[in-house]
Structures are given as structure tokens and as C-alpha cells.
Design a protein that fits this description.
The protein is an alpha/beta fold and 394 residues long. It has 15 helices and 15 strands. Strands 3-2-1-4-5-6-7 form a seven-stranded parallel β-sheet, sandwiched between helices. The longest helix has 22 residues.
Length: 394
Amino acid sequence: MSIDLNRPIILYMHAGSKNHGCEAIANATLKMIRDIRIEQGCDLEKTPIPVVFSNDADEDRKYSLGELEKQRLCILTSERHIDKDFFAHVIYYGWRKFTGDKQSFMRYRFRDAYKVFLKEYNRCSAKGEGAGTTPLAISIGGDNYCYPEMVSDLILAHDYFVERGFETVLWGCSIEPESLKNVALLNDLMEFDSIYARESITYKALLDVGFTEKKIQLRKDPAFELEKQDVPVLEGFIPGKTVGINLSPMVLDRAKDPALVREGYRNFIRYILDNTDNNIAFVPHVVWATSDDRKPLKELYDEFKDTGRVVMIEDSPAETLKGYISQCSFFVGARTHSTIAAYSTGVPTLVIGYSVKSRGIATDLFGTCENYVLPVQELSDPQSLIRSYEFIMK
């Protein structure tokens, strides 16, 4: 990251650590900020602590970001949720409808969190640190711009910080090239001072629509640099002799035939159990109530548990999950950051993907995404996972 970091910093659009990909991005980014500040000779005691605007700070504190907060690498603070406050929702909706003031929802959303930021800014300014410098707002939701339903709020959130005089950075992003035809989205991206694309498909698409190489940079997803923890011995998990499996409700929702995807996973598991001496570990990477990997993985676990060769990894911080994934002999992943944990620790990996991020990352690593990524929307053969496994292992 070639940006001046010796100033007040906000990390925003963090969805919460029960999505361990979001946790991994935030964790690695905060440690990167610390390390660069040290390299630049900053006094960490006097430099403003980065403030993370989170969907749920209490959720974050249950995982690795809680430890980083104790180490003073960040301050965690929750956004307000207007959908959970009936009266505020009615008042703000009426105001917005009457005045056209769409930004009012963001002022409500960020009000308490911004007060936390100002408190830290003023603490350092009183010591003569950070006063008069342009604060930095970093949007850390890597694939947020891949979801059309999020674009309106992303634009409003970005405008919130631009209006307050922040320099803004879009960090570790993936963007579907077709979506750049959306004029409002494109104009919003143009407002960022810097954009870091995490794979070359996004990078090239941005260049093609007029961005300059001065404004955008190609840089790997920060989660590639997430540290991995040493993990305890787990019954049924044999280091170097265990195939890791991740499946997500999101991928099943995007599949043309979810039943066929499930059948493909079952066929692959049977193939591993019948033709190798490997065990199987089911690895959840997102555990939100609305999108919990443990649900489809538990179905698979229950189907094969009588073999005595399958194990379910419990919900754990991102660094712990990376520790287990790093000990796998092979990994099949639907969640992007579960596969990044595998890629970055040298584990042969097959991605069950649905967007530009998985295609772009695989292409940058291998020169092609063919056989390394199975687009779930096109999955039509229940034997395709087995064939890709054989190709990759060969």
C-alpha cells in the first residue's frame, strides 16, 4: 500500500467477522497498516488508532479483531441499523421522501461510529499528532460492488466520507466488468482517490473504461497475507491426508440446479473415500444466521459420518481456519476466502465460483481459470468435481 498512513484512518463497509473472509481482510489490513507505520518511523502511541466501522462490533470481538483491539491496532465500533428502530425508520423514510435527502440514512447509520472516530482524532490532535492532516477512509468490502443490490448504499456511504473531506480508497476490490455500464456506479468509482483491484479482470476492466494506472493498482487480496495459527490435533483430521470441503448457501442459491451441485459434492466425497487414504474435513467459512455454511456441510457430514473418516471443523477465527486449511492435501471451496487460505498456503485448490473474483484470482495464479474454477451457474455434470480434482492433482 503506497499511501501515507500516518494520519487518522477509518475502515468502513466491514460486514462483520462471522463472515471470516471479511474478518481476514480487516485483520490483514490492520496489521499491514501497523507494519507500514513502523517502517515509516511513526510513534504508534501517538498515531491515531484506525477505527473500524462494523456491522457488528460485538461479533468482531469474539474473533481475531477483538484481540487486535486489545493490542491497540484498531478501535471497533458498530454502525446503527435503521431497520431495527421502527420510529427512526418511519421518521427518516418520511424525511427522505419529502426532501429527497438520501444521505440522511447514512448520517443515521454512521452517527455513533463517527463520534468514536472524532474522539480518537481529537485525542491525537491534542498531542499535536494528526492535526491538520487529511483523514483516510478505506472501503474494505472486497466484493461489495459485485452485488447490484448493494450499489446504492455503497455510493451513499462513499459520498458520506467525501463530503467530510476524507481521502478515499477502494481496497482489494473485484468488480464485474459488465456492471461498469452503470453510470452511477462508474461515477462513484471515479470519486475514489485510489483503487486497488485484487485481480486482473477487474484491473483491466477499469483501465478499459478510462481509469489511469496512476489511480488504480493491481494488488493481491490482503487475505493472502493473513497469518495462520498453529492448530490443535483434531480427531479425524490427519495433516497432509485430509481433503478440505467448503460449501455455502450463497453458491447453492446461484446454482442453476442446487441438487446437482450437492450431488457433485457427494460424488466427489465418495471418490476420495473409495480411491484414496485421505479423510474429509468440512470447513465452514461464513456462519451468519442468514447464510450459514454449517447447514449444507452438516448435511454432508451426516451422510458420511458412519465411515469414520469425516470431521466437522467448528466455527473459529479466520487465522485458525487457515491453520486447518493449510494442513489439507486438497481443498474444494465455495467461499472465496476459504480458497485464498488454501492458495496462500500452497494447498491444491478447486473453486466452486460464481463471480469475477474467483475467475480473476485463479487466472492470475495459473494463467487460466479452466479446471481451477467451476462456475456454479454452468455446473451441469455431477462428475465435474472429480475430473477437476484429477486434473489439478496431475
